[in-house]
Amino acid sequence: MALHFLTEEASAAVGEDLVLSGAEAHHAIVRRVREGEGVTVGDGAGTWLAGTVAVVKPKEVVVRVTSVAFQPSPRPRLVLAQALAKGDRDELAVQAATEIGVDEILPWQAARSVSRWSDDKAAKGVARWQAIAREASKQAHRAWVPSIATPKSTAEIAARPGMLLVLEPAASARLSQVELPTEGDIVVIVGPEGGVASEELAELERAGASCVRLGDTVLRTSTAGPAALALTSARLGRW
After folding, report:
1. pTM exceeds 0.90, yes or no
2. pLDDT per position as a tens digit, 34-87
């Protein structure tokens, strides 16, 4: 499969040249692209260009555009509210969710989150998640890069519009059997290693959230969200 690159400058017409520089040019050089090789380029917001590498220089790669398209954002939108987790488990969730097709990710400072994001750490954490989502989008050849929100409290998650689905192993309803909307947002809420606290569950349920389970097993916080998104994507016809 052709290499995919992301740049905010992806705005060339058929027959024109698009210049990749900076990190994208470096990526191309590392991957040893050759003149005449087919590649794709996107802006992460729906624009999709296909082209042929015309020139390869140490700090610059020129792509001659052969086709231009725009891919609308899927509806309904899939949103992951991912609780901050210890180690790199939340980052693994961000990577996998992006590859699967999530449209937005909300870092959630849950009551039982071992990891805590202070003001300075929050900015670094969001930037880190954005970088992970960008690279995973390139790997998955996505036309849309998911947005990463600022850290959210439980009250802010509860106030989100759309269908709120809390992954809870003890829930009686299965995600595979819940009727899904065709518009708006579907927000999948995943707790940290210790699970969602009872007071948080109550707050979310008062806001209209439904508790659902995936099956009879308990998944890690790093895999629960991506698994739920995969199931939901299949039911929505994305897959």
Report:
1. yes
2. 999 999 999 999 999 999 999 999 899 999 999 999 999 999 999 999 999 988
CB-side neighbour CA atoms (13 Å) of 70: 6
Residue 136 above 90 pLDDT? yes
- The gap between the terminal CA atoms of the chain, to the nearest Å, is 19
What residue type is 231 in one-letter code?
L
Whole-angstrom distance, CA of residue 84 vs CA of residue 90: 6
Average pLDDT rounded to a whole number, residues 211-225: 95
Amino acid at residue number 137: S
CB count within 10 Å of CB 152 equals 17
User: Domains of the chain (ranges plus CATH)?
Assistant: 3-70 (2.40.240.20), 77-236 (3.40.1280.10)
Beta strand pairing status for 47-57 and 60-70? antiparallel
Give bridge partners of residue 80 from the DSSP assignment: 105, 188
- C-alpha span between 138 and 131 (Å, rounded): 11
- Where would I find the H helices in the chain? 22-30, 89-100, 119-140, 154-158, 198-206, 221-236
50 contacts 59 by C-beta, under 8 angstroms = no
Reading the block at residue 149, the tokens are 């929100």
Confidence of residue 9 (pLDDT cuts 50, 70, 90): confident
